[in-house]
Write a structure and sequence with these properties.
The chain is of the alpha/beta class. About 45% of the residues lie in helices and about 15% in strands. It binds adenosine-5'-diphosphate and magnesium ion.
């Protein structure tokens, strides 16, 4: 069983979007992975998504630090392949336990609202937990050099955490899909650019989880 957390101390950068997409795409693979989502997010965006969703797959459980160990133990016993944890934006102490258990911590970064201080604090929390992190550029505008510049700064200032190759563009289908209780692959079909980006991101993350 692998555990993927999505975490950053910066709100609105795409934690829930990435958590939901990695969970749904994992469950859509030929090798029908059994996936469980744990939702720590106080904003509850994943919970709204799950409520809008017609099916209970992947299942989403509201969690807190007190219930984490119990859920993970149960998931192992039930043969779950992947647990995706959507964490809240602020308190690293609250997230620390989840970070410690994670095989990988995906850290979304929004180029336009890039905040180096927040990224350094996030990286520190990931390292303190002894976890492996990966930066993901999300909401990348279709034009301009902002994302490349952000990536350069991250590589220079936080070299211990890699920036993944796959980027998610700033694309309407990502938000429309979530509002409908879907992932882009379900909402817009596999040929849509957003779907291709999300699948490419999943493949890269899968490689890092090994
Ligand atoms: N790649 C994207 N393209 C378009 N909209 C996005 C993208 N990623 C996130 N959003 C939107 O930005 C907002 C914040 O994203 P969310 O995943 O809820 O962030 P967080 O969980 O970090 O607070 C949401 O309205 C979401 O639909
Ligand atoms: Mg969220």
């Amino acid at each position: 069983m692998k555990i993927l957390s999505v975490f950053t101390s910066k709100g609105g950068s795409g934690k829930s979007t990435i958590a939901i997409h990695m969970a749904v795409i994992a469950s859509q693979q030929k090798r029908r992975n059994r996936v469980l989502m744990l939702d720590y997010d106080v904003q509850e965006s994943s919970r709204f998504w799950a409520r809008a969703r017609q099916e209970d797959n992947p299942p989403l459980l509201p969690a807190d630090p007190g219930t984490l160990n119990g859920y993970l133990k149960q998931a192992r016993e039930e043969g779950i392949d992947l647990v995706v944890i959507d964490l809240p934006p602020h308190s690293a102490t609250q997230s620390g336990l989840a970070l410690e258990k994670s095989d990988l911590v995906a850290i979304p970064v929004r180029p336009g609202a890039f905040d180096l201080w927040a990224m350094e604090a996030t990286a520190e929390a990931v390292e303190e937990a002894g976890a492996k992190g990966a930066f993901i550029l999300n909401q990348v505008p279709s034009r301009g050099t902002e994302a490349d510049e952000t990536e350069q700064v991250l590589r220079a200032k936080i070299p211990q955490i890699p920036v993944v190759k796959a980027r998610l563009g700033l694309r309407k289908p990502f938000s429309s899909a979530l509002n409908a209780g879907l992932a882009v692959t379900e909402f817009a079909g596999p040929k849509e650019k957003a779907s291709q980006e999300a699948v490419a991101l999943f493949r890269e993350i899968k490689g890092l989880l090994k």
